[in-house]
Amino acid sequence: MRPLVTALGLVAAWEALVWLTGLPPYILPPPSRVALVLFQRFDLLIEQAAWTAAEMVLGLGLGLAFGAALAVIFAASAAWRRWALPLVIVSQAIPVIAIAPLLVLWLGYGMASKVAMAALIIFFPVVSSLYDGLRRTDPGWLELARTMDASPRAVLLQIRLPAALPAFASGVRIAAAVAPIGAVIGEWVGASAGLGFLMTQSLARGQTPLAFAALTILCLLGLALYTAADRLARRLVPWHSPQGD
Amino acid sequence: MRSAHIVLDGHVVAEALSLDFPGGLTTCLLGRSGVGKTSLLRHLAGLLPGSRAAGPVAYMAQRDLLLPWLSVLQNTLLGYRLRRDAAARRAAEARARTLLAEVGLGDRLHDLPQTLSGGMRQRAALARTLCEDRQIVLMDEPFGHLDAVTRLDLQDLAARLLRDRTVVLVTHDPLEALRLGHEIRVLSGSPFAVGPVIAPPGAVPRDPGDPALIALQARLIADLRRQA
Predict the structure, then answer these.
(1) What architecture is the B1-56+135-228 domain classified under in CATH?
(2) Contact map slice: A 124-163 vs B, CB within 8 A
(3) Residues A136-191: pLDDT tens digits?
(4) What is the pTM of this model?
(5) B4 touches A: beta carbon within 8 Å
(6) CB contact, 8 Å: A206 with chain B?
(7) How far apart are CA A163 and CA A157, in angstroms?
(8) What is the dihedral of CA A6, A7, A9, A10, to 10 degrees?
């Protein structure tokens, strides 16, 4: 409750600042104006938000699926580790944002380039969190499994993978926090729809209040995505929150 | 076990070691911390590089090693889960339930380990070890970090449930060795040597208040002290 009070206080201070300084709305619109635009252009905003939300969710799903699959392959195969793991690590040196224009060139102005962008940006945190988790299994569990004549496959599926879920859960949280960045940057570079697209369009036309309204929706979307991912992460490791909090 | 060499990180723990463990009885290996008891046990379990297990063994480590995402019953059946033998697992389930009832966890079958106390967790680990149904049981200070009374209770329980199995139990607690061991061997030195067989009279688990036991305990403690 208290953070909400702080947030309301900040909004009030913002309103007062605009009022006192007399800044024109195309530089800094007051919150009341943003709220009004939010209300008036609600249909447009929701339509664009649905587009961006789809990009985020698809990108998140794709990035999680590919990242998790690669982490499991690395954990299971020494050959993959030797031939491909260094490459994945070095690939982190590429600023993913810098290849956004290329993605638009290859995949077009539609949704695909944004989904790819979001998936790419979360790919590494997902691989590294799950792979780290798979590597750091309690050696005591592995020895116990050895005395029980467990096959490497059974050890991976029944011990290493569940033991890595807490690490993967934090990867999922990070992914949910950065997936919106991927989607929005994709839209800034070149798009035909979405909240990021709406922001650049309205800023270019001096409709700053509309850009702020889009930004507000974007924040809410990011928050919703993170909350959903956090729920999922908790589901993955029920044994980490014994009191069900 | 015949002429084993145990080397750990380039440090010779034991050389040309030969040991006989009487079948169907419990042998306690007693020694101070760091003497190499655990290495010997891990050698027997086939867990050291270059070592091979003497046959199918059930191994109980110092920590309970319960998997936090599995229920008590599922943990007890871990070996069958890992071997992916559904038929054997179904057959073993009734035994797992009986064992858990015997260790006093009959009403906690579906609880996660984190809801159990330390003593209960160790009892679940004991049930898992016995559920493996293997003739040779290797135990590494299994009751080391329990409070004194819980430890005595668990020793009673273990002595009863381990009857007729060939047990090698490693401990630094002379009383534990005296209560549970049909035979006791003292490990000392570096690389360690194994002392002569000490076979205390009476059936296990022996009464901790027995004067003969207390006298023997004093002797063992003196033995262990001298090696410092």
Answers:
(1) 3-Layer(aba) Sandwich (3.40)
(2) 138, 140-141, 143-151, 154-155, 158-159, 162-163
(3) 999 999 999 999 999 999 999 999 999 999 999 999 999 999 999 999 999 998 88
(4) 0.83
(5) no
(6) no
(7) 10
(8) 120
